Amino acid sequence: MAKRKVDTENRGFQTRWESEYMFTKVAGKPVCLLCGESVAVLKEYNLRRHYETKHADKNKNMDMEQRLQKAEELKRGLKSRQALFKKAKSQGQAAVKASFILAEEIAKSARPFTEGDFIKNCMIKVCDEVCPEKRQLFLNVSLSRNTIAERVDQLSINLKEQLVKKGKDFIAYSLAVDESTDISDIAQLSIFIRGVDSNLSVTEEFLALRPMHGTTTGHDLYEEVSRCVNEMELPWEKLVGLTTDGAPAMCGHRSGLVAKIREKMQEENATGELTAYHCIIHQEALCGKALKMEHVMSIITRTVNFIRAKGLNHRQFKAFLTELETEHGDLPYHTEVRWLSQGKVLQRCFELREEICLFLDSKGKDTTQLRDEMFLCEMAFLCDITSHLNAINLQLQGRDRVISDMYSTVKAFKTKLTLWETQMRKENLSHFPSCQTMKEKLSTSAFPSTQLADKIGMLAADFRRRFADFEAQKSRLELLGNPFAVDVESSPPNLQMELIDLQCNDALRAKYAAVGAAEFARFLPGTMPQLRIQAAQTLSMFGSTYLCEQLFSLMNLNKTSHRSRLTAEHLHSILRISSAQSLTPNIDELVEKMGHHQVSPSNSNK
Predict the structure, then answer these.
(1) H or E segment and range at residue 69
(2) Separation CA 39–CA 23 (nearest Å)
(3) pLDDT of 574
(4) Model pTM?
(5) Which of 22, 41, 208, 289 could, after both became Cys, cross-link 228 (CB 3.0–4.6 A)?
């Protein structure tokens, strides 16, 4: 015979038990109104026995009406205590949640953890003026340095757990890896992941920042990346691409990071081939050096440094420009690390060339070179071509960039270079406004169009050389960029049948026209599995290490000379929070995990 289960007997609490036995129902259990004890099994016999054993003598002289009144009074008292407890609990949870929210904002704004105390003092002062009766609620919010540090770590762990969970659904992923040095001369290895799930949704997030206190050889880099991939429980066979800054330790054929990861994938019996790229933006910046016009830039840099390096010269130059009522009131500095600054300096120097010469003359400086017509023509050309290079650089920057779009941008620029070279030889300066200005002002010598056209040809040749690895992937990138224009016969055999079905589907063609290449992949039907896998692999690829460079900027904002003792763990947590894009910390879940924790005012005033 099966054992009886009380839960299946549908026993219900009867209202009359409140006055007869002084019991009420709380959270599905009978609770004594007199002593607060609960009875495990909801049976009248159990309630009656409890009442007669413990409370019968106290209430034996009461009639039924008095019993009813007392039961109601006790119920009201119980509800009042419950409400008070719930209020205290909700206020405690609100205080904890507030500390999490403020900790997240402090991390995102690159503020030190001690800012929490400052914020709290400001909150209390505002509260005293606006709502003094709620002062205690604000005092209960703990924002001490230790609390903020703990909250930041918890937020970071929560984000990491979300990423690990998402990573389990990736059908393809790629990594972007770059290395830089912080204020304490510690090498920092930045790793980002771009993964694509079965719905072809892209997740692009910070994976890790690993400090490297010793050497930074290819083996050292591999050890850190490998440890990071294993910690995140990412399968090696789904790794599709690796984008680096192109340094020998990254790209060495035998002992570089790329070579080591390829060896690891072979050990893991991964069927796919790892595609390695040198950051597109970095290569584009290196292409500019093919012009070999350092002699022009060195003269301009010397001139700018003479004006800006000494405070007196700088003040007098600005006053001089104000007196002449020029459009611009100053000259910017140029630094090699900030690639776009060169174009801004060139443009400003060209526009203020006459004023600069007048100022240098007043200082007794030789301006023969700055007035030379050949130099001015080269300066005008460098100004224009750098402006074009800066424009493509800005186009390639940003988050969530699809590699096929970046390839199209580079491809278009190479075509433009061919056009500009042809036009320059014919002295057609439509796309070179500074050169056009100089040509109109030349007094004797002819404009050196042939020489400058050769410079454009050198730049075009360097673009072709540096982006040869992208040309090798041309068919793969075009398959994502415009699958309706791909030649089926030259495509891989496993894609040919699906490509024919796709190109003959008018509804999908209309959808492609409506949403564009990046979004269209998500609309590929399940009947085209090979195309979906191909699209996922291409979508997962990084075209640049832009996110790594952006992270290093955040790192330098946080780890300054005033915060040089910031620990690696705290720096890592801060950067995970401040760089998160598609993920947000689940603060409610964190508060729930902390249970009924409530910080006392004495602790929060530290």
Answers:
(1) helix 64-108
(2) 10
(3) 95
(4) 0.80
(5) 208
